[in-house]
């Protein structure tokens, strides 16, 4: 969620990440729609992250779009932080070694 200093309007973007594909845009909105996205996220204990520049970029995408590859690293860091603050680890992560198990994906 982010507020534009000029407009003082909330903008929110929700992402879904399944651990397999790139995160996708599941909701975007401004004003009261953004407030509702944020309310639902809070009620569902979904971590929130504020970054006006990132929200501005992501809000230009369509629902269901994957995030662009250029944003993979920053989104990965946000997802890792969200896991950390919830004391969770991704499936296949070994806490002792700090490494992910390798999962091969079949080539179609």
Automatic annotation (TrEMBL):
Keywords on record: Bacterial flagellum protein export, Protein transport, Transport
Coiled-coil spans in chain: none
Stored InterPro entries: T3SS_substrate_exporter, T3SS_substrate_exporter_C
Pfam families in the record: Bac_export_2
Family according to the record: Belongs to the type III secretion exporter family.
Biological function: Required for formation of the rod structure in the basal body of the flagellar apparatus. Together with FliI and FliH, may constitute the export apparatus of flagellin.
Name of the protein this chain belongs to: Flagellar biosynthetic protein FlhB
């Amino acid at each position: 969620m982010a507020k534009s200093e000029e407009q003082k309007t909330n903008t929110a973007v929700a992402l879904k990440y399944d651990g397999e594909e790139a995160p996708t845009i599941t909701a975007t909105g401004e004003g009261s729609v953004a407030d509702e996205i944020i309310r639902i996220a809070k009620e569902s204990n979904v971590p929130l992250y504020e970054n006006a520049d990132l929200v501005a970029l992501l809000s230009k995408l369509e629902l269901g779009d994957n995030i662009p590859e250029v944003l993979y690293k920053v989104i990965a860091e946000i997802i890792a932080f969200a896991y950390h603050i919830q004391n969770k680890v991704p499936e296949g992560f070994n806490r002792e070694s700090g490494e992910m198990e390798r999962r091969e994906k079949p080539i179609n």
